[in-house]
Each structure stands twice: as structure tokens, then as C-alpha cells.
Amino acid sequence: MRQELRRKRLLRRSDLELNDVAERTARAWLYREQLREILERKQIHVVSEMLQQWCTNVMRSKVEPMKDVARLIRRHFDGIVAWTQTRQTNGFIEAINGLFQAAKRKARGYTRFKTMRTVLFLIAGKLDFSAFNSHAR
């Protein structure tokens, strides 16, 4: 009898914990959807106000992973608001940097800028030298 009561109490506690987890998961999903709707807007002032309010609401909630997101957004707030207007990332600059790093590896030991620039143009141009040199790949 006592063991059965203990088992029922444990089951009730696990049900409550599951309900709590399900509620927090649902709340996290709701916050995610709200953030997505905010970031789809293009007016800077509207996005700025809505994002500040969103961060305040999330920081008052009990959903810890979303609080981390809110802290991250607050740290990068100006950049996120600027992105909503331009929708541009630094991907193009990163691609150029990757090409430059590849040129540095291929130009092994060359220190002159002119040589580095030539190797960079050769890599970035993706020229086909097979018409001139049958050994070129």
C-alpha cells in the first residue's frame, strides 16, 4: 500500500515535470515565431521597438535558452537592426578573404604585393589554361 502511494506520487510528479517541459517548449517555439515575424519587417524604428520589447518579454520568462538568445540580440542590437534594412551579410567579404588566404598558400614565400595580387587574380579569375597548356587541369 505504502509503496503504491509512493509510486503514484512519483508518477504525478513526473507528469507535472513533463507538463512544465512541454509548456516551456511551446513558449520557446512561440518566442521563436515572434522573433521571425519581427525580423521580416523592414522599417528600422518598428523593428527596433519590437525587438526591444521582445527581449524584455523573453528575459522575464523562464525559458533559459531563449534568454541566451535575448542576451545575444542585445549585444548585437545595432547590427541586427541594420541588417533588417539592408538584408546584406558579410558573406561576399568572407569569400574574398578565403580567396586571399588561398593565394597566400599558393604563393609560398613570395612577399611582394605584386606577386600576391597576380596569384589572387589567377585564383579568382578561374581561367582555363588548357587551350595554351595541355598539362593544365
UniProtKB/TrEMBL annotation:
<dbReference type="InterPro" id="IPR002560">
    <property type="entry name" value="Transposase_DDE"/>
</dbReference>
<feature type="domain" description="Transposase IS204/IS1001/IS1096/IS1165 DDE">
    <location>
        <begin position="16"/>
        <end position="118"/>
    </location>
</feature>
<dbReference type="InterPro" id="IPR047951">
    <property type="entry name" value="Transpos_ISL3"/>
</dbReference>
<protein>
    <submittedName>
        <fullName>Transposase</fullName>
    </submittedName>
</protein>
<dbReference type="Pfam" id="PF01610">
    <property type="entry name" value="DDE_Tnp_ISL3"/>
</dbReference>
